[in-house]
Structures are given as structure tokens and as C-alpha cells.
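Exercise 7b. C-alpha cells:
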């Protein structure tokens, strides 16, 4: 009985950049082919200082592409055709220079041009000196590329060719092969075709043209939920307060400022919501009056009084709507987590509530991590402290199971 290899029939375009780790590209090509992949190699000019095109041609079985304006290569498979050919573009090693050029969208040499011209997923395996990797510019470039949907594989930690120790080593070849196999493995799509609406970030309640009431929500938790729901097959809409984060382009984004705006956008989105997740930190109150002009400091008084009025409770209104979606709330608490969360679950008529202990410094508002205790009317689930991306995946698995009950 013949079994299918994990990369059988997959077309991988391997981009090799000029770093000492380029010598591993030959072995990587071989091991990808062992798993069934067809590999074509693109080399930058500096990569050829570290490993020859002849070597890469010998191991891949195809000519190596290294010139944007090569009439002979264009007569074979032109660069646009090559960009469309790939099921995956893997850049390994990816140097700091290549990463910066990708971020800038440069199209003056073959590899970055192919990335610009390709609709295919792109994985970047950074390899460089640890100081270069940790430099703000590189970190910012990688973050931007990641937010644009590129996968960042590695780097590994350890001894470097230059003698430094730290992060920046190219992942080992078996790890890169495994990540490629994982990428092509059939994905769990528990939310395929399900319409998910998520509120995220803070709201801003204007006092006058230059001042507002708000909170420390960064939007990271809500945006992580949106990306995870998309990866699980959902059609995702995010109603986002003012945050400085990007979302995948195939997520519908509605930007709002105030709780009243979010309330309106939420009720409008109801006709297209099967699941509604209220992750936003909505201001409970707004000022009764928004001043048209900037409020001047009073010289005759040391205090001033603003009258606040209650904002509408968005998730409670969504949950009481006719044909309500499956409703998931959050409860951000500094004490008596379970009691308050269960009270909100009942009072707001929710299906699930994710209780968030925001008294712990490394989780909750504006942190990279979170931990949640999720309650339904009958059950309790604990999600341990982890990166918000992972917490989002775990929470959505619980939501999809409960939604389908
Ligand atoms: O954005 P991050 O920096 O990543 O932080 C994430 C988070 C801490 C903001 C998030 O995990 C979280 O806990 N969100 C809910 C914050 C909150 O306002 O909780 P609450 O207990 O005040 O509200 C309870 C629920 O009612 C929430 O689902 C909230 O969205 C909703 N609500 C509250 C008030 C209101 N007027 N309308 C609402 O819909």
C-alpha cells in the first residue's frame, strides 16, 4: 500500500539570501524533495557569494533563477509565471536586508519582485547576527510583514557563526521541513462559513474636541480572535475602536470611536452574525455634554464637574435582539472574578462569558498574554496564561463546540 508524502505535488519556491546559513539551503532543498515537493530556487546576488547556483541546480533538478532581467530565463518560465507557480514561497535564509526590502515592497531584483507579484503564502526564516535580529528596525519589519500575513519561521537561539550567542540562527533543516509539512497539512476548519462579528479595542468618549474618556485596551485580544476565526474558516467582521493594529485584508473592518458608534455598528451587523463576540472594553459612561470648543481652565476654581450618563450595553442589546446570534461576552474583573462573570452571563443573557483577571500585571489590558476562565450556564473551561494568539485559538475552539450544541 503506497502512502502519500506530506508535500506530494506541492510547489515550493525557495528564496536563498546571502548569509552564512545559505549553505543549509542545499540540504533543505533535498529534504523538501524527499517529502514529495517540487522545489525551484531563486538566489539573490549575495547568496551566490555563499553557495553556487550550480549546487542548487544539482540538488533541485531545475535551473536556478537569479536575474530579474534575464531574457533566457524569461523565455522559459517568466518571473510572473514563476510567482504564480508556487504553492508556497519559503525564504531561507532571510537576511535583515531582504526582510527590510520585502517590507518596503522593493522590485529591483528577482526575489522581492516575485514576492510582490505572487498571490502565494510566504514564509520567512530569518538568519542573522543576534544584535541585527533584535534591532528595532528588524523587529518592526518582521512585525509588519507578519501583520500582512507572512509567516515568520524562527529564528533559533544559540551559538552564531560570528561567535555571538542569541536569537538569529536559521531554524534547523528538519524544523523547516516540518513547518512546511504542517503548513500543507489539512487544517481544522471548525468555523467554516460561519459569520463571526467581534468588537475589539477601547471606545473613546469625547469631552471636547481634544479630550476624551477611554481605557488601556490595545485591541490585541480582539484582533487575535479575528485572525484565529479567519484561519478556522469564518467570515469575520471586526468593529474596532481606535487601535494601531492591522488586520488581514479578508477581514471586514468597521472603525468606530464611541460606544454609541459601536452600538449602532453592532446592531447593523446583526443580520450577518451567527456568533457575536464582545471583546471590546466599552466605556460604561460618556459625558452628558460634548463641548464644541476646548474647555478653558478656570482661574477661580480648583475643580470641575463633568456629568456622565450611561452608555447602551451593546452585548446585552445584541443578546436580546430578535434572531439573536450566539453571544460571547468578556468580563474584565480585578476581584471576585467568578461571581461577577456569572452575574454578567445571566444579566446580559449570554451563551458564554470569558472572565479576565485584569489585576494580574502580565495579562489582560495592553499585554501580549492573557489567561481566561470561560463559563457557560453549565460548564467551566480554563485557558492558561499564553500568548493572546494561542488563547484566541483555544477560546474559539470552545465557542465553536458550544455553538454547535
Ligand atoms: O485589547 P487588549 O489590550 O488586548 O485587552 C483585552 C481586554 C482586557 C480588553 C479583553 O480581554 C476584555 O476583557 N474585554 C472586556 C473588557 C470589559 O469592558 O469588560 P466589562 O466587564 O466591563 O464588560 C463586560 C462585557 O460587556 C464585555 O463583553 C464588554 O464588551 C461588554 N460591554 C460592556 C459595556 C457596554 N456598554 N457594552 C458592552 O457590550
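Sequence design result:
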Amino acid at each position: 500500500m503506497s502512502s502519500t508524502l506530506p508535500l506530494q505535488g506541492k510547489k515550493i519556491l525557495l528564496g536563498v539570501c546571502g548569509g552564512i546559513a545559505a549553505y543549509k539551503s542545499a540540504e533543505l532543498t533535498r529534504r523538501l524533495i524527499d517529502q514529495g515537493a517540487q522545489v525551484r530556487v531563486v538566489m539573490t546576488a549575495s547568496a551566490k557569494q555563499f553557495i553556487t547556483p550550480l549546487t542548487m541546480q544539482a540538488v533541485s533538478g531545475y535551473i536556478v533563477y537569479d536575474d530579474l532581467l534575464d531574457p533566457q530565463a524569461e523565455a522559459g518560465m517568466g518571473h510572473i509565471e514563476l510567482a504564480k507557480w508556487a504553492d508556497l514561497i519559503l525564504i531561507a535564509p532571510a537576511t535583515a536586508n531582504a526582510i527590510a526590502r520585502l517590507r518596503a515592497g522593493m522590485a529591483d531584483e528577482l526575489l522581492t519582485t516575485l514576492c510582490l507579484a505572487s498571490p502565494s503564502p510566504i514564509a520567512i526564516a530569518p538568519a542573522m547576527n543576534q544584535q541585527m535580529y533584535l534591532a528595532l528596525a528588524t523587529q518592526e519589519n518582521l512585525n509588519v510583514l507578519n501583520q500582512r500575513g507572512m509567516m515568520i519561521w524562527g529564528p533559533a537561539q544559540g551559538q552564531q557563526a560570528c561567535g555571538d550567542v542569541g536569537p538569529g540562527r536559521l531554524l534547523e533543516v528538519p524544523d523547516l521541513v516540518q513547518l512546511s509539512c504542517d503548513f500543507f497539512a489539512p487544517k481544522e476548519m471548525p468555523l467554516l462559513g460561519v459569520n463571526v462579528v467581534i468588537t475589539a479595542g477601547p471606545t473613546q468618549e469625547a469631552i471636547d474636541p481634544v479630550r476624551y474618556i477611554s481605557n488601556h485596551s490595545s485591541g490585541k485580544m480582539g484582533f487575535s480572535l479575528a485572525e484565529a476565526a479567519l484561519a478556522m474558516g469564518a467570515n469575520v467582521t471586526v468593529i474596532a475602536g481606535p487601535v494601531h493594529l492591522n488586520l488581514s485584508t479578508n477581514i471586514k473592518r468597521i472603525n468606530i470611536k464611541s460606544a454609541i458608534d459601536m452600538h449602532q455598528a453592532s446592531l447593523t451587523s446583526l443580520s450577518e452574525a451567527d456568533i457575536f463576540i464582545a471583546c471590546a472594553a466599552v466605556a460604561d459612561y460618556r459625558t452628558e455634554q460634548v463641548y464644541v470648543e476646548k474647555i478653558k481652565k478656570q482661574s477661580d476654581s480648583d475643580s470641575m464637574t463633568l456629568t456622565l450618563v450611561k452608555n447602551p450595553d451593546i452585548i446585552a442589546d445584541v443578546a436580546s435582539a430578535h434572531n439573536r446570534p450566539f453571544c460571547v461576552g468578556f468580563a474584565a474583573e480585578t476581584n471576585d472574578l467568578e461571581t461577577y462573570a456569572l452575574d454578567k452571563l445571566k444579566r446580559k443573557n449570554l451563551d458564554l462569558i470569558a472572565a479576565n483577571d485584569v489585576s494580574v500585571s502580565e495579562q489582560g489590558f495592553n499585554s501580549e498574554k492573557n489567561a481566561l476562565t470561560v463559563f457557560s450556564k453549565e460548564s467551566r473551561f480554563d485557558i492558561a496564561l499564553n500568548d493572546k494568539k494561542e488563547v484566541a485559538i483555544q477560546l474559539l475552539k470552545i465557542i465553536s463546540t458550544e455553538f454547535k450544541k
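Instructor comment: The first strand starts at residue 11 and ends at 16. Residues 204 and 214 are 5 Å apart (CA to CA).
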